[in-house]
Amino acid sequence: MTATLFAVQVLNGLQLGVLLFLVAAGLTLVFGVMDFINLAHGVQYMLGAYLAVTFYGLTGNFFATVVLALAAALVLGLVLEVLVFRHFYDRDHLDQVLATFGVILFLNEGVRIVWGASPLSYPGPEILQGAIPVMDGFGYPVYRIALIVAGLICAAGLWLVVARTKVGMLIRAGAANPAMLSALGVNVRQLFMVVFGFGAMLAGFAGVMAGPIFSVEPGMGDGVLILAFVVIVIGGIGSIRGAFLAALLVGLVDTLGRSFMTDIFKLFLEPSAANQVGPAIASMLIYVLMAGVLFFRPTGLFPAPGRA
Questions:
Q1: So where does this one cross the membrane (predicted)?
Q2: d(CA 245, CA 51)
Q3: Into which CATH architecture does domain 10-129+140-296 fall?
Q4: Residue 223 and residue 213: Cα distance in Å, rounded?
Q5: Comparing C-alpha atoms, which of 101, 235, 255 is closest to residue 155?
Q6: Cα separations in angstroms, 232 against 34, 102, 211, 302
Q7: What is the pLDDT of residues 168-227, one digit of tens each?
Q8: pTM of this prediction?
Q9: Are 302 and 234 within 8 A, CB to CB?
């Protein structure tokens, strides 16, 4: 293991972490404020990427693509909320799981029909091409650095909205005690719609930013959804701060574990055994981390007030 490889993998972990935060932030607010289990949140990440493919083909401009894809992701999120999700707010969690799983199947097949099953892609902007020297003549892609910076800016902006605005105050109150918020005369259903639409837009933004790096294909949001649920469990349901810190932690643990776990096991196992055990343990690390956090803090690292 070299210092250069370690630095690159740390940057990759941060990149994964900010993408997970963009997905998990909306998910934790929807779960925390609405007590609604939305398994279809991952397909909104996927839709963001597919919308970006379409708009890039129409405009040829990455920044115009981002704006148009975000607007479309917001509209599609609100449409899903009106047509499907709002009818299940007062149902039990099993009904919510079944309904949102049905949405996953429907949308995954929908993108196959509209865009086909083959992986698609689109390039990042010209201004963000190239690489930044890290060390020993090795460069790290500028676009990936920009993705990390964009995610951190989004995290700061979201924190300001939630912590410093009236809407954020209502969101925090809804995460802590939605029944009391409704009793005080707040239109909780309208608040739910705002939170849901905003969460869909954040997930779509993650998909847009991930498109130039990963393949755009049906089902691409399923794995991200699992990681996002791990993030909100570790961070604490309804907590933006918890989602941000847990996303970075999960991104780093997952990336560094997959990169170096085999080498670590080679220190005290035969190479053939290490090659088998290392990847298996690496794939379990984030779940071991989640179990450890829940053992000591069952409500997560930074649960929303009222859930601690």
A1: 6-29, 36-56, 62-85, 97-115, 142-162, 191-214, 226-256, 277-296
A2: 29
A3: Orthogonal Bundle (1.10)
A4: 16
A5: 235
A6: 15, 23, 24, 10
A7: 777 777 666 767 777 777 777 777 788 888 888 888 898 998 888 888 888 888 888 888
A8: 0.87
A9: no
